[in-house]
Amino acid sequence: MTDMVGSALVRRHIGRRFVALRTQAALTQEQAANALQRARATLGRIEDGDERVRFRDVDVRAMLDLYGANSQEREMLLALTAETRNGRKKSWWHDYTESDLPAWFGLYVSLEDSAQTISQYEAELIPGLLQTRSYAKQINSMPPGYTDEEEIERRVHVRLERQSLLTRPRAPHLTAILNEAVLHRPVGGEAVMAEQLDHLLEVTQQASVSIRILPWSAGVHGGMGASAFALLDFPADPRTGEPLEPSLVYADTLTGAMYLNKADEVGAYRLVWDDLQKRALDEAKSRKMISAASKGFSGA
Predict the structure, then answer these.
(1) Same domain, 267 and 124
(2) 141/176 same-domain check
(3) Plot region of 182 (φ>0 → left; ψ -120 to 50 → alpha; else → beta)
(4) Cβ–Cβ < 8 Å for 266, 248
């Protein structure tokens, strides 16, 4: 399964299954750790899906015995933990330090990399997965004086690295809905904008990418209270048919991020997304609007 979904996703799924088994066994985390003769922090890392954890078969079996797992759970968890040991290539973001890639964003990068579909709305700017280097540098330079040049370059490099997921085999499907204002707001000058909009047109040639424009003529719409967000849906475990990770909503803030995964929260954003899809132009009309905006900046 690890050739289809990210190791981070599998580990988080394993962690949730172990939490469920421990809860069914009426054990606290501390009680379980003592019985297993493991540090509570170690058990916590297992349950959190921490990628630093190495699952030894003997340890997994001890946990399954302690929790009284049935044969189906045992088979599934032994198989899943074995997959984490099968030499999966280290993900590119593991080479970054905490200062380069803060933990709050590193989590999103790993989940984004494992998603089956990414549904993204932007009211102010081009989404990171679709930005050119010049556009990304301008965006990461704001607000003036907040970030030094070295940090800006690191952020831009991470952003460009993330884009590789759109061209890999079994790429997630990205649908981006952009407010029309995004096409006309001059970021970095006319040349930067013309290049950026032409890049959008190129990217739409990929089967895994759909870009649609929400025109001003759409009037009042559901996204007015949401500003910008990404809705991630994940693949299912072929053994059970259950998603390996619950759907989640991610939104950037100036100094961090917001993660929402409760069913009612995700449901509210899904309603917003459905409304945006109804009001946005189709792909062909969106391409025409992007092309016209590009010509406006390039003078062509």
Answers:
(1) yes
(2) yes
(3) alpha
(4) yes
Most confident segment among 39-43, 86-90, 99-103, 167-171: 39-43
The pLDDT assigned to 225 comes to 85
Q: Which of 234, 246, 237 is nearest to 72 (CA)?
A: 237
Dist. CA 189–CA 284, nearest whole Å: 26
Show the CA angle centred on residue 120, arms to residues 117 and 122, nearest 5°.
170
Q: What is the CA radius of gyration of the chain?
A: 22
Indicate the range of 201-215, 236-250, 272-286 predicted with least confidence: 236-250
Residue 218: which domain range?
Answer: 92-298
- What pLDDT score was predicted for residue 140? 87
Enter the tokens of residue 123: 């009211």
Task: Assess whether 182 and 282 both reside in one domain.
Answer: yes
Question: In Å, what is the CA distance from 89 to each residue of 2, 110, 182?
Answer: 10, 14, 37
Q: Kindly state the average pLDDT of the residues 206-215.
A: 96
For 187-293, strand residue ranges (E) read 209-214, 228-233, 248-252, 257-260
Helix 133-140 vs helix 190-203: angle between axes, to the nearest 10 degrees?
Answer: 120
Q: CATH number of the domain that 107 lies in?
A: 3.30.870
Residue 64: per-residue pLDDT: 95
What is the rounded distance in angstroms from the CA atom of residue 35 to the CA atom of residue 31? 6
How many domains is the chain built from?
A: 2
- Whether residue 149 sits in one domain with residue 186: yes
